[in-house]
Amino acid sequence: MDQLCIVTTGGTIDKIYFDDKSDYQIGEPQIGGILRELGVTFQFTVIPIIRKDSLHISAEDRELLRATIAAQPARHVLVTHGTDTMVETARVLASLADKTIVLTGALSPARFRGSDAEFNIGTAVGAVQCLPPGVYIAMNGRIWDPEKVRKNVDANRFEALG
Description:
26% of the residues lie in helices and 31% in strands. By secondary structure, it is an alpha/beta fold. It has a single domain (4-160), classed as L-asparaginase, N-terminal domain (Rossmann fold, 3-Layer(aba) Sandwich), CATH 3.40.50. The protein is globular.
């Protein structure tokens, strides 16, 4: 892997709980700090482009993400994204050729004990280095083809279509 380009869009992975408001808001991207804490030995850059819950990501936001990734020289791209519309965004990114793009996120904020964020990030980092060019989703310890997966909201996990 030459260099890993990380593009952040917000989502649960970056949420902060505000006790005085009894509410969650999207905070600073967490992935750079997580990777530094874990002592990774590869070079990476973090490009935060939006801070939204994925339910609020628009077609214009997806086009901004696609254009941002297209403009990067890196061939390996990891995208942190909210889980509710991750599949939809992955399908938009499928038009980008010659890049390996892996989307990941978390079902609970990275700042919370027991969050799946670090595990999902680790899975995504491994996947982005090993997979051929294309777009993939890394969640729940699995690598998914965006055309063959959905988020099961009731079970709070990703699963194969059909």
